Amino acid sequence: MSATPTILLSIVIPVYNEExxxxxxxxxxxxxxxxxxxxxxxxxxxxxxxxxxxxxxQAQHAARPDVTRVIDFNSNYGxxxxxxxxxxxxxxxxxVTLDADLQNPPEEIPKLLEKIAAGHDYVGGFxxxxxxxxxxxxxxxxxxxxxxxxxxxxxTDQGCMLRAYKREIVEAIVRSGAINTFIPALAYSFSGNxxxxxxxxEERHAGVSNYSFYSLIxxxxxxxxxxxxxxxxxxxxxxxxxxxxxxxxxxxxxxRRLFLGAEAEGIFTLFGILFFLLSVAMIGIGLIxxxxxxxxxxxxxxxxxxxxxxxxxxxEGSQ
Length: 319
Ligand code: UDP
Ligand code: MG
Known about the structure:
8 strands; Spore Coat Polysaccharide Biosynthesis Protein SpsA, Chain A; binds magnesium ion; 10 helices
């Protein structure tokens, strides 16, 4: 990251197959930022789009080379990696992330900036009147609940990507070298003074969500396992309890076998021993899991994306 103090604001937007939304996004976003009257830049990451998104970004870079930068990934690495690549390159003192599909109205950006100006180092948006399918909304509530129980992260709406960060926070995120991460949660863990504001939420302007059921599950797995070892610990505790229960069963069956005689030719005694050994094996798996989890936390520090090309002019930033 090279710091040019004259650029105050960096807008970061991940783009994956958004050809239908980009023209409207450009038409709404640039006027909002121009009206702020401060030097800004917009960093788009093309996350391996298969449609005309990159061509549209190239054209936009040609039209507004003063404020537009484009990072082009060779393939699809996911929304959070796209944001990470932009974070590594931003020049602003304040950084705002935004979705390209206009679900986060660009007109809400000044609201976040006000909170930053009031002294907060991280401002998260939460969606007022969320416009997503019932399934997405319910799934999101469930994962919010699990996250609250397993990590110390407090957020009203972890899925809202309209967020503002002070440069220190973004630098800490980049330094952490995290991969497969969940940026809002990581930012929260580095923030000393977070705030939240309600932001409008619109329906996707065009196209369908890029998240398949599988990638949503993956993302939420990353959120939970990336920030705590609690699932592994719960698993080991459960295995321990079941081992204790089975051991009790073995004792009871042994007592019956010795004093009351064999039942069904001792088959239940065998079952008891079998259950006990099974529980021991589960504890073993749990323990191995703990170590794999810890090792994973270290190994995660790998860089996981490849930038094919960046479009930018040397002297960015305009009024
Ligand atoms: N996105 C991305 N890479 C992906 C999936 C999504 O860069 O693999 C971008 C997408 O272009 C959009 C934002 O991330 O700007 C949010 O994606 P989407 O609208 O599909 O997610 P949802 O709003 O359904 O959570
Ligand atoms: Mg969306």
